[in-house]
């Protein structure tokens, strides 16, 4: 007969299995949605899968409370034995790391964070670093035998869809053309040249991706082949990407999560990690939809860094925010964002609204232009790990969030986000070429957010950052809204000169009214920057441009935004 601890452990794992089954059902539906060009359904499925975790954890937690006596569930000491029983249950599984994170979520729903320990939770994973292979084939290989044409045909024959290729001969030619441009001549002549691809296709937004690597006798390269479905024309090979930095951007923290069938998640992560050694596994788990596992891996890396390093928290570079206060560890590529207790008078939002804005970004398509965040509660750090000026400022602006507990500092609530160079600071030291490239990408960032039905609200340079790849990304979300909720207006002509000279506007302004004509002066204190940006993206200063985008979105159009370089006229591209 099973002991109560074992029954509780089994109950938790049963909840996890139900969650995993529903997660996989949504994920596996990605192929059909892509084949049928159901773009709106794709967005809805992505949001549903993100929301699924929290709703499933809540349901399992309530089921525990309904099924077992309260002392067994609510006494922390019980969880030492529950954890041990749970370890036995998940030991043979190939998704055990996800099961551990699920258990942690259940525990945190029931108990205070100050009761967390490695005896009651999986602060550190118990899964072995090296594991027996699952015997579920992860990849399939294709050998060229000296012919890129033969190699291309093999791949397209193997990865076929219910919707046919637009033109199989043309797709082969496209694949061969891009392969020949992406690898050196000597590799193309290698009869043993092999392309190894993950069996599952990666789906996101309007694209599907074959992901793998090219292997020659002397070298290897990442291989990503984006596929597009042109409505009514079939599926086409869009390009082939063999550059590591370009592939890294496709798996960026600014992207929505892939839908990819991963029965053994750690094997998929290990394979992609070999392609992108610079990526942390936390980011890779998040990229394929396991964002809670990404959060666990991030937390473990932070703990490890704190144990090994000795640098102290300092205020992050940039203009101080009116809503958020931001601090960072110099050697750890992350910022920590907390909500101030009092906002600047010009900010017409409250704490609850700010929290909802950040959660909206988590659920929404980020199109490579909004940084993903992780939300945490009850971080505890040693007092001596804070620079005194940093700690004094945090205690002053957010005393309800930053709490002194003797030699420990409690951060009740925060978000973590990848650290970037604020665009205004970047431009201070940029060359003429760098300035033009940054302002070009700044405008493209605004346009791509608009294509995803996002209006940033406060578009000041300080609210955008520059990544290590030189991409401009929005990261301050307290004023974002859906583009379709904004009323874009032209400034009416004054009836007489005195109106134009008055300190107050001579026309009525509603709460959602925006006047793009005001952007040039509002966004650019530097006249040179203003003139350059007007030349590059002057249409952003016209209300008609924004209204045109609104009309397309309201008509149900999902606009094209590509996560890779694609110089095709008339399309939004990265």
Topology readout:
Layout: H1 4-28, H2 30-35, H3 39-67, H4 70-74, H5 78-90, H6 96-110, E1 139-143, H7 148-158, H8 168-182, H9 185-188, E2 194-198, E3 202-204, E4 207-215, E5 220-230, E6 234-237, H10 244-250, H11 265-275, H12 281-287, H13 291-308, E7 314-315, E8 324-328, E9 334-339, H14 351-363, E10 373-382, H15 388-397, E11 402-405, E12 408-418, E13 421-422, H16 423-428, H17 432-451, E14 454-455, E15 464-466, E16 472-474, E17 481-482, E18 487-488, H18 497-501, E19 513-514, H19 519-523, H20 527-537, H21 543-554
Explain this structure.
Mean pLDDT is 91; it is low at 567-574. α1 packs across α5. Helix content is 43%, strand content 16%. The relative contact order is 0.08. β5 and β6 (234-237) form a beta hairpin. The N and C termini lie far apart (60 Å). The chain has 21 helices and 19 strands. Strands 1, 2, 3, 4, 5 and 6 form a six-stranded antiparallel beta sheet that branches. Strands 7, 8, 9, 10, 11 and 12 form a six-stranded antiparallel beta sheet that branches. It has helices spanning 4-28, 30-35, 39-67, 70-74, 78-90, 96-110, 148-158, 168-182, 185-188, 244-250, 265-275, 281-287, 291-308, 351-363, 388-397, 423-428, 432-451, 497-501, 519-523, 527-537, 543-554, and strands spanning 139-143, 194-198, 202-204, 207-215, 220-230, 234-237, 314-315, 324-328, 334-339, 373-382, 402-405, 408-418, 421-422, 454-455, 464-466, 472-474, 481-482, 487-488, 513-514. The longest helix has 29 residues, at 39-67. The protein is α+β, with helices and mostly antiparallel strands.
